[in-house]
Amino acid sequence: MNKVTLAEGVYWVGVIDWNIRNFHDYSTRVGTTYNAYLVVDEKIALIDTVKAPFYNEMLARVKQIVEPEKIDYVISNHVEMDHSGSLPMAMKDARNARLFTQAKFGEGGLRKTFHADWPFETVKEGSELSLGKRKIVFIPTPMLHWPDSMCSYLVEDKILFSMDAFGQHIAHSSRFDDEIGLDIIMPEATKYYANILMPFGDLIVKAVDKLGGLDIGMIAPSHGVIWRSHIKDIVNAYASWGRGDMKSKALVIYDTMWGSTEKMAHALADGVMSENVETRLYNLTKSDKSDIIKEVLDTRLLLVGSPTLNNGLFPSVADFLCYLKGLRPKGKIGAAFGSHGWAGGAVKAIEQELGQAGVELVESGLDFKFVPEPEEIRKCVDFGRTIAKKAK
Ligand code: FEO
Question: What does the alpha-carbon distance between residue 357 and residue 103 come to, in Å, rounded to a whole number?
């Protein structure tokens, strides 16, 4: 087991979860890591833990450096189980440690989760913890990812332990950005932001402003690789995603029962493409929704289609729209389409869901009966052409 050093006396003691393929309904095809860190000074601090089944692996890494009873402080930057899940074991092994957590929601969240009476120390904006020659400053970053979330900034080493922010779900043998390359990291960082942090764009902009005031030499997130050579790249990307920057780009997202809604989807895409707008088409049975959400992030136009089943949405479309609604995408325009047999309902339901997701409906939906006739296919192409102009 290699010791991973971020700076003198600062170590990665996390674990690699090579085989996770679903992280609360987000497809993690290349696994992830749960990053915990150990800072050894006159006092010793453990920053976060790992998902419970991986505790022994984390403990082995800690023991390479110090015996756990020597740990003075355990810092819980976030209550969620992927980082706090090992606290019951860690607080038993680090039996002399006090537990630092955010004042407003951290202690309450941890008590409600673990029903344990640990020696809590609550911190708020600007609270400091001296480790001897260096100190940690706490920076609450509410909603990145939960209300309790905070970053810990190790001042002298200029290391920001950024919690979920700036993370990526990547399992890799290397720990640092320059050992892997942006071509591998950025697609995963984008997917992570889109699926986890997209609803909090305004808060991201504020957090990036706030963190921009720090002298940051390294960003050590709680998932994936540690940023030391491409800090500007990831911070600028977060600023852009937080603002909701988009391209003139369209997604045609649909499912189909007997092929009619699919015919409409292809005709719509033809119309949009004829206006030279970048277009992607996704059948929801064949594509993964968290991959589609990654594409939603920088897309202006969403065209969503469903056949009518039992007077309502096809289940895969309902699932996608429910997921989209929770992620509250910013600044999108869209429209609905679909085919129905004896009775309709899906197009209206899509419009309702898109409206609730904050998507501005710029055209009334296209709703055809049974198999679209050539004239109706022409209407789809024209519809695509017309709506594409609004996405430019
Ligand atoms: Fe990685 Fe919000 O936990």
Answer: 32
